[in-house]
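Milestone M4 deliverable, item 7.
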Amino acid sequence: MSEARSTPPARRVAFRQLASLALAGSAGSLLAACSREGGDNKAAAAKTPEAPAVIGKAGEKVEFRYPDNPTFDLVYLADQLGYFEGTNTRPKYIGKVAAPQIIPLTGTGEIDFGSRMVPLVISAVASGSDIKVVAAGNKTLQDAPHMKYFVRKDSGIRAPKDLEGKTIGINSFGACAEFVTKTFLRQKGVDVTKINFVVIPDDQAEQTLATGNTDLAIIHAPFSGRADHADKLVRLWSDFDLDGGLGGMQPYSAHGKFIREHPESVKDVVTALAKAANWVNAHPEDARQLVSKRINLQLEFVDRYAYVDNLVVTEPPIQYYIDVLEAEGKLAKGKVAAKDIYTNAFNPYAQAVAKA
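Output delivered:
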């Protein structure tokens, strides 16, 4: 049973009241379908004639498949806050999914929605996967970074050049930890070919560093807060220090077939996520408390997330990673444009602005 359903009624009512205050004045009108992306949808449908686009009937009960991972995530918060109530859409949690597998599984339709970094989605689109970013996610602030960089206090590592010949733990290849870091290190004159990058899950990165199996750990919220309190470790930087937060947006993506068959449900999901994001921004401490209970991590160790206002996607964070992937030789120049990666057509806040 999900924590959303086990939360005492009084607490849920209180959280909804807080959410209502945070969301006063929100947009009410929604698009009937993904009109701006119609050409892309038809092209995607043409690529898969065995699964033609089918628009779901009004009032149809729809479940969307989503990972049940121990992390700070808007789907879980939206569910716990009751933002899917009053809609015909609900999350169907399918168990834990390793971070590197989330976008590949969303791209093949084995899960319907996934939240991972922009370069993974760009690479998936470039390889022909039927996937689209439908909502922005978290953003990096100086006091709420997306990821933090830690070393042991006795390591002697204090400057970028000190990392040559060392081992860095990242949560996956092809995402922010790899590309933001390599871009920064190259700017500082570091030969990144002399660094060994290894994959370590965020919830294990602190211990792996403390025991000497890595020399630097890049840890994402919420688990980065625990490393900040570790006696043997010291924080060198955050991603805000490296690029001002430009590479810190972690959006929500959906499989193309789900988008085409269930446009109303996609609107339900994006709307619920946007409401939850705005609630988190307005009530960061309440959000930390919910996440602390969900992932069973002591409250003082839970780092918070900040989210893009209304989860409206903008192009600069996407173009940043297109440029990085091209510079890294991972993407042919001009193969993918930012407009190919995302749509705001299901976001009521974006549509309200467009109609104003």
